[in-house]
Amino acid sequence: RKEQLKEKISPTVTESVAATTKKATFANFMARLPFLVKNEAPGPYRNQYDPTELEETIPKHTVLSMNSVTIRKPPHSPGEAGRPVTTKKEDDAMVKSMFAEASFNVFVSNLISVERTIPDLRPTKCRTNQVADDLPQTSIIITFCEESWSTLLRTLHSIINRSPPHLIREIILVDDFSKRVHLKGKLDEYIKRFPQVRIMRTAKREGLIRARMLGAAAASGTVLTFLDSHIECNVGWLEPLLDRIRQNRTNVVCPVIDAIDDRTFAYLEAQTLRGGMDWKELKFEWRSIPSFQALGRKDQSWPIISPTMAGGLFSIQRDYFYELGAYDPELFIWGGENIEISFKIWMCGGRLEILPCSRVGHVFRKSQPYIFPGGAFEVFSHNTRRVAEVWLDDKYKKIFYALMPEALHIDYGNITDQLEFRRKCCPFKWYLENIYPDLGVPQINLQAVGEIRNLGQQDVCVDTLGGAHLGLWPCHGQGEHQSFSLDKSGTLKSGSLCVIREVGKDGEVLSMGLCKKENVMKFQHQDKELKELGDGPHVLTGRCLDITFGAGAQKFLQLNPCNGGKFQQWKFGLYL
Ligand code: LR7
Ligand code: MN
């Protein structure tokens, strides 16, 4: 009955037993690697994954050698084998309030053993693939901010139980200025049972990027392995990562990230995908593996070349991390660093891969439970803008701004050091052509974006005035009501609304309205002027956008006969 159940939950368990008879070897693994890499000669191989070891039996030897306290589970412990956990109706209120604490189901997480079993979801071949005998040791760095108790402990136990002890130099926890009490003395007390676990605390909120760098600076392993604080490492997760780095120190490798459901904590198999990118916000996205790349893979256990990484889970040789300039230390709190390091790795001579034989589950959640000092949008845009300014060539930078003109108004600080570093790396065009040829470059239909500043007056900008008639206001550099775009056909927009002409009892006014063909205005932006276009392309009416001065210091935005004067000259924030 137990066997049947196992099979149902994890069909791979039975496959692993079958695999013992095959005695497959993988000695030529490296020699048959896909394009782009010169790897060092493979070393002496040994089968490190004993295919006869079932998931449940693997923790034992490690637990003993770690002096860990063995946690005894009740016979029907919830969530075993990665099954979903459901709760009773009467617990709904509790579930809801505890959900708010972490943006995942803390109530359910607390019911599950910190040493629960999870299904081994590796491609079958992984059980017999071999890795080198002399793998480098890794330091594991986990930063956390306000992490829940049970998820943090499950993270730790899963690492310790499912990693060969001699491969872990140390586990460094970096508490990024959490306020929750369980993350103080109680945590210090708990980790005493793990001699290899240390905790560092930041003196102020640093954000995950700088917190990771603090952890890295204290690490002494040959390899650095970064992990999130709500994960579960799966069987044999570590060896393939270290093996690949041993083969070439400039390989940077990620596990496949399985999903731990934020509501039920079910451990769910992730599709085998690679990391991609969306041009808007330079955001990481999962993408399918293109056929040209799939062809280069002999079987499902082969590495997947990935243009970008998700960010949270990867191994990198320590010295190489510093050769790459680590992370840009001016990236704040959360976001952007994953794209930064991905670009860096590829453009500065490294290689980024996802290894299907290495799997780690991560609790995917829809929002963050901690505060973003300064505002989430501001922090994220600051980071992405830095990455765009440093790593995108001019042409591509403009695409970024065309898709995210709001970013033009976000301060991104000084990037001199980053630009200096970048000089020794390949152009972004090289990355696009060689590493991510299928990304595609969006066709941008815009001429200019950003504020529209008058050249005759000091610090006067066109302003939507929040929806009333279009007017003028001192330039504030914050975007919003002063953020416009002019497309190639001459339509002037702010957000999704267009500049339109309305004739009312006070005569003609310019305002913002729905972009209907009958009333949108069109402009030809030439010699700094914004010339009104009449019906049909290139028909000028002879009027230009102008400032009319009223009684006192009153200024109005109007269309007047073009006269080449200073008040009819305008400059956009950015020309594309
Ligand atoms: O200020 C902070 N300080 C921290 O130490 C904010 C966060 N953190 C910690 C946090 O406790 C967690 O351990 O940093 C880690 C990541 O933060 P999460 O879990 O709140 O966010 P996330 O899982 O969405 O983070 C993803 O994107 C981030 C962008 O900066 C990082 O790259 C994370 O590493 C990344 N996580 C993953 O890649 C896991 C897989 C998710 C996907 C796709
Ligand atoms: Mn996370």
Automatic annotation (TrEMBL):
Keywords, ordered alphabetically: Disulfide bond, Glycoprotein, Glycosyltransferase, Golgi apparatus, Lectin, Manganese, Membrane, Signal-anchor, Transferase, Transmembrane, Transmembrane helix
Listed GO CC annotations: Golgi apparatus; Golgi membrane
Superkingdom in the source lineage: Eukaryota
Membrane topology: Single-pass type II membrane protein
EC annotation from Swiss-Prot or TrEMBL: 2.4.1.-
One BP annotation, GO: protein O-linked glycosylation
GO MF: carbohydrate binding; polypeptide N-acetylgalactosaminyltransferase activity
Compartments it resides in: Golgi apparatus membrane
Cofactor: Mn(2+)
Pathway: Protein modification; protein glycosylation
Domain Ricin B lectin: 449-573
First-tier enzyme category under EC: transferase
Chief location: Golgi
Family (UniProt): Belongs to the glycosyltransferase 2 family. GalNAc-T subfamily.
Descriptive protein name: Polypeptide N-acetylgalactosaminyltransferase
Upper classification of the organism: Eukaryota, Metazoa, Chordata, Cephalochordata, Leptocardii
Residues of the full protein shown: 246 to 821 of 821
